[in-house]
Amino acid sequence: MNKIIIVNNIANDWQVKYKKHFSTSKSPIIGNTNINNFTDLLDKLYNHSSIPLNTKLYEINEKIKKNPPQKVSPLILKKCEETGCYLFLYKVDYIMDFII
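Below the sequence we write its predicted structure tokens.
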């Protein structure tokens, strides 16, 4: 499978699985993302990861779960706990720091 298909499939899967975290806003609030930002992240991760992309996402999600940002509101953290998705507590550039 080529990169575009892999990235689009994973983006679609996450958008369905973590629907509460996807926004149509150009600049979504912390805890959320939009499809463009997420596909940008997937594109960057694809180029820097030697393991399958979805595996890498869940690995980063677990790292963020164990070390969430200090200034996240309790309401956002509760949402993350309910869905199991912590990935969007950080911006794309910061997430890239987890792998570089």
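The helical segments are 3-17, 35-48, 53-66, 74-83, 92-97.
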